[in-house]
Request: fold
Amino acid sequence: MLKLYWADDDCLLPGDRGLAYGDGLFETIRVNGDSAPLLVYHLDRLMRDAGRLGIRLSRPELESAVAHAMKRYGAIHGISHWVLKLVVTRGSGGRGYRPAADVSPHLYLFHSVLPPLPPETGVMVDFSRVPLTVNPLLSGIKSLNRLEQVMAAREMKDPTFELLMTNAAGHVVEGTRTNLFLHGPDGWRTPPAASLAVSGVMRRKVIECLLAAGEPFRECELQVEDLLGRECQGLYLTNSVLGVVPVRNLAGLDLPVGNRLATICDPHKRPD
Amino acid sequence: MLKLYWADDDCLLPGDRGLAYGDGLFETIRVNGDSAPLLVYHLDRLMRDAGRLGIRLSRPELESAVAHAMKRYGAIHGISHWVLKLVVTRGSGGRGYRPAADVSPHLYLFHSVLPPLPPETGVMVDFSRVPLTVNPLLSGIKSLNRLEQVMAAREMKDPTFELLMTNAAGHVVEGTRTNLFLHGPDGWRTPPAASLAVSGVMRRKVIECLLAAGEPFRECELQVEDLLGRECQGLYLTNSVLGVVPVRNLAGLDLPVGNRLATICDPHKRPD
Reply:
């Protein structure tokens, strides 16, 4: 049955460009009791990418709304960890794709329980058949234009936890909802920021931690063979809600799993 | 001022994937009094592309909703021409990008007055600096993922009517909201369907009319030089609301303007 929403009824947001064109951004922020360890990184990214899209956001207004949300929704979740989702849209109106000069942004605030967390022993991962295409102007931006990720995720069947996407050049770039770090004989590698559809907050955290820990690290294009070949000493997925997730099997191939990356980098990991 | 929408208030559509990910499609249908000349083509495209995205739509339900909208909104607009916009989303819910198996679509119905129509003497057009990227899986689909077109349209300054977008290969593919037809010594050319971000309903109509009129026509990749060079005998933009729009000036170069294409192809053009 098709559910109908009439534009002239009260309960719609007529002309919100976020619905019309995916003209906006989002953040999914893990809240652990009364603290959100990566909150500043999430707000940094939201402000930076709003700037790239020409959406005028005020950081103090944003922080105030978030503080309000942490109280309002925190009261519902109590001591449980939960997820705060922010959706910022450019607002309403304008002549078609072209925004009005005085357009003013909307902020939607959602909350949900934590998704099931993957085991520390690692997850099963495969390759997606959906190609990843990244507009250079929009690289790394967690915009509302996520149809490619939807089409890739539709193909996922339990127990597969994630599908890795490759670009037209054949490089393995990222998962549908994760970034990736490869461990090899000469240290850690992750695909370059400019190649990414989404430049993760957890990815930023992991890079900072690796550098602070003196681990060899570089941004580098990765081929399928790098992940499946003998020199692969481990593959790790990152996501700001799930943390650092080891891959124990990739496309049928068992991979070594260690806990070093999670130990030095995962802000959600309870200390032993 | 940031306008806030709380997910637990009544007036939001929590979890509509159209807002969250641009997970849906739209059609903008011109209604001329009590008839919509291209309605069948719009519904054909909506049904075909919903199928490509795996969104289960029933054509009878869709037609029934449209008929209802024509009455409901037609009563508001009277004899004036107006625009009916349909937005179909995959619905709500699911685990992140991955839709739930029982997800059920939403249809939003909007109406608006006609935009200002361009003069028959033609319009001024330029090239966009925003590259066009098209995922082969999604080529031609008028999905809600339109952030590239928004970013291109932001650069438009009156009196420029349209900006033409090129892809990574340097081919001129389409305008932000139009397809294009080039007239040359050996007939009509338009970029191939597989290269398009949006495969227009008016584009389909024009191709059918050209073929029916026995005009030489082929799908062909176009370079900037094809449009600006000596062999260009005219450039025409197509859009199902605006019809066939001649380009009188492209990036500072005057182009010849004829009325043949509009005469044989434009369903909105009043007969002389």
